[in-house]
C-alpha cells in the first residue's frame, strides 16, 4: 500500500512551547518585543504621568529617580512622553499595514485575474510608486489639518503599489498552477475561484510583506514628525520628541537617545517577527529575498 | 460503428494557437467518437495534440492565444463549441470531468481534501454542505482511501502522490460524469502505483458506466484499459482501431515505431544473453507553425515516397474497424512486424 501520509511538522509530537521557541527564535523574540510595546501603548496612562505637564524648574534634568529618562527643555518628563509616543507608532504602524494590505490585496487580486484591468491599473500603480511618501505627506498636511489620519493616509498611498505588485505576481503564478486549472475544469465560477482558491494562497507572502510595511511605516512616521509634518506637536511621538530635543543634544542627549532606542527596538521587533514568519510561512520566498 | 448517437462526436476539430512565430496548428482536423461507457485511448508523443484535443472539449484553451477554428464537438446532442460560457461551465466537473497529469499540484494546498470534493458536489448537484461531506466520505471510500472519515480533514501535503491521484479521481467522479477525460493520469506516479490507479479506474468505470477518454503516451496503459485507440501525430489522427486489432496489426509506420520504442523484457530476455537496443523513432516532431503539405510523419518515416512528402494521406478504412492515414499501407503491412 502507498504511504498514507507524510509526517508533517504540524502533526509532529506536541513538544509544546520549548520546541516552538527553539525552532522559531526570531518569531518568539520579535513577538515578545511587540507584545511588550503593545502593552506599554495600551497601559500608558497607568505607567506614566502626564506627558504634557510643563515643569520649568526642572528643565533638562538628567535621568534620576524622579525623572527616569530625564526631562526636556520645557521640563516635560521624557519617560512619560516616550511611553505615550509608543501609542502613535503602534497606531500608525498597524493601521498602515492593515489598510495598505487590504487595498493592495483587492487591487492585486483583480489585476492578476482580469487582464483587462491589469494594464491600466498597473501603470497607475507605477505612477503612485514614484511619489516619495515624505513629499506626499508634506503636501497633504499643507492642504489639510495635521493629524494622525492624514499621516496614515500619506504613508499608505505610496505603500499600496508594493502590495499590489506582490499580490499580482502571486496570483499570476497561481493561475498557472494545475490546481487552478483543475478548479476551472471542475466548473468553478470566477468569483469563487478568486476568493476560495486564489486568495488564501496569497495570504502567506502578504502577511510577511505587511510586517515589513508596518516597520517602514513606523520609521516614516518618525521621520515625518521629526520634520514637523507628522502628528501635531501636542501628541507626543518619538519623531517629534527627537526633533524638539535635537537643539539640546549636547547637554541633554537622553531626550534624543531614549526615544531613538525605543524606535529602533520596535522596528527590530516588527522585522524579526516578519523574518520569522517568512521563514515559517514561505521557505521559497526566504531564499529569494 | 454503432448506430445509436454516440456520447461524444468530434468532427474535423481544428484548434490553432496564434503565436509570434505564426499559427501553430496544434490540432488539425481530428474526428473521433466515443460511445457511452466506452474507453477510447489517445496515444502519441509529446506535442502531438492529445492534450489540446482534451482541453478543446471542455473549452479550456486560453482564449487570448488559442482558438477552435473549425469543427464541431457534439456531446449528447449539443455542440459544445457553440455553448455559452455559463452552460459549458455547468458541464465541466459535472457531466464531463477531467483528471490531470500532476496529482502533486492539482489539489489546492490550503483546502482540505474533503472540502475540495464536497465543493464540486455542492456546486453541481445542489446538495447542502453536510450531505456533500457525506458524499465526499463515500467517494473516498470508493477510491479506496483508507480511513475516509478522518482523511477528509487532511490537507493535500499530508497525502502521497498515489493518494492524491485517488482524491482527484474522487473529485472527478463525485458528480457521476458521463465522460471522464484522463490526461496522462498515471505519468507522474510510481510504476506500482500506476497499476493500482489504472485498476481502480477500470473498476470504477464499470461501476459508474462513465465513458473514458484516456490520453497517454504509454502503450501499456492503452493495452490495459482501453477498447479503442486513436493514434495522433502532429495534430492529426493517423490510425484508429480496436486495441486488439491495433496491437495485432499496426498499420501506420508511426504506430509501429511507438511499439518498437517500448522496452520489452518478455521476448528479448530469451534471446541468448544479448541485450537488444531499444529502437527510437529518429528525428523529432515537426514544428507545427508551418503548413505541412504531405504526411507529417514523412521526414521520419522509412517508407516515405515523393507522394508522402507532397500529398496529405486521407484516412482510409483498412478492415474490421481499422482506419489509417498512410499512402504506403500495403508496403508497410507486407514488411511484417518488426
Written description of the protein model:
The complex is a heterodimer of chains A (about 290) and B (about 350). With about 290 residues, chain A is an all-alpha fold. Chain A has one domain: MetI-like (MetI-like fold, Orthogonal Bundle). Helices cover about 70% and strands about 0% of the residues of chain A. In chain A, helix 9 runs antiparallel to helix 11 (about 255-280). The two termini of chain A are about 40 Å apart. The relative contact order of chain A is 0.15. With about 350 residues, chain B is of the alpha/beta class. Chain B has helices at about 50-55, 85-90, 115-125, 130-140, 150, 160-175, 190-210, 220-225, 245-250, 255-260, 265-270, 305-310, 330-335; strands at about 10-20, 20-35, 40-45, 65-75, 80, 95-100, 180-185, 210-215, 230-235, 235-240, 315, 325. In chain B, helix 3 packs across helix 4 (about 130-140), helix 3 (about 115-125) packs parallel to helix 6 and helix 4 (about 130-140) crosses helix 6 (about 160-175). The chains are: A mainly alpha (about 290), B alpha/beta (about 350). The interface between A and B is medium-sized, with 25 and 40 residues.
Summed up, what is this model?
Chain A is mostly helical and 289 residues long.
Keywords:
heterodimer; A: MetI-like fold; disordered N terminus; B: 338 residues; alpha/beta; 13 helices
Briefly, what CATH class of chain A? Answer: Mainly Alpha
Largest binding interface between chains: A-B, 25 and 40 residues
Work out the strand percent of chain A.
under 5%
Would you identify the regions of chain B where 5 or more consecutive residues have pLDDT less than 50? none
Describe how the helices and strands are arranged:
The complex is a heterodimer of chains A (289) and B (338).
Chain A: H1 17-23, H2 25-42, H3 44-47, H4 78-113, H5 115-129, H6 133-143, H7 148-175, H8 178-185, H9 190-227, H10 238-245, H11 254-281, H12 283-288
Chain B: E1 8-19, E2 22-34, E3 39-43, H1 50-57, E4 66-75, E5 78-79, H2 85-91, E6 96-99, H3 113-125, H4 129-142, H5 148-151, H6 161-173, E7 179-183, H7 191-208, E8 211-216, H8 219-225, E9 228-233, E10 236-242, H9 243-248, H10 253-260, H11 265-268, H12 306-310, E11 316-317, E12 323-324, H13 329-334
Parallel strand pairs in B: 3-8, 3-9, 6-7, 7-8
Antiparallel strand pairs in B: 1-2, 1-4, 4-5, 9-10, 10-12, 11-12
Helix pairs in contact in B: 3-4, 3-6, 4-6, 6-7
